[in-house]
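User: My instructor asked us to take a sequence, write out its structure as tokens, and then describe one feature of it. I'm not sure where to start. Here is the sequence I was given:
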Amino acid sequence: MGKNIILIGLPGAGKTTLGKLLSNITGYRFIDSDAFIEEKTGKSITELFQEGEDHFRSIESEAYKKIADFEDTIVSTGGGVVKRNENIVALKRNGTVYYIDRSVEDISHDIEVSHRPLLKDGLERIHALKAEREALYQDAADCIIKNDKPLEEVADEIIAHHYGSGKGGSAHDNPQ
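Assistant: Let's start with the prediction itself. The structure tokens for your sequence are:
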């Protein structure tokens, strides 16, 4: 039984793309929490948000409790996973949490905001989310990984940390 690899960070940080790459490398199953929620509810994330953010966050928390029971899984979380501490507590039961730290500028260059309800207002909103959530991401993380190089190198850093063969260049343990 292997611990899950939990990827947290801002929308557009690269969690899903990185998660799929890590799944290919490790053979672990990949779960995108937003897709998991959509499948379980039969509604899109945008539709769920239209019923109110609190409504969505409650559904999201229930999903993380279920996901936390999985093994050998790469989990790409929603950007707001850290808004409720219960999500992080659940995911850490059988997972190592990696904060994928990517600059707002890099995010703004290649995200499709139409699928991301909290980013429809553009760059200002991404900056606001970063300011609001940065400390939460850092506190939740077992390891902080900078996504500022080719994704294969970022994946290598996570794998090196996860399997204990050392820490890659910018990976570092969160002193807690």
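For the description part of your assignment, you could build on this observation: The beta strands are 4-8, 29-32, 73-76, 95-101, 143-146, 172-173. Try explaining in your own words what that tells you about the chain.
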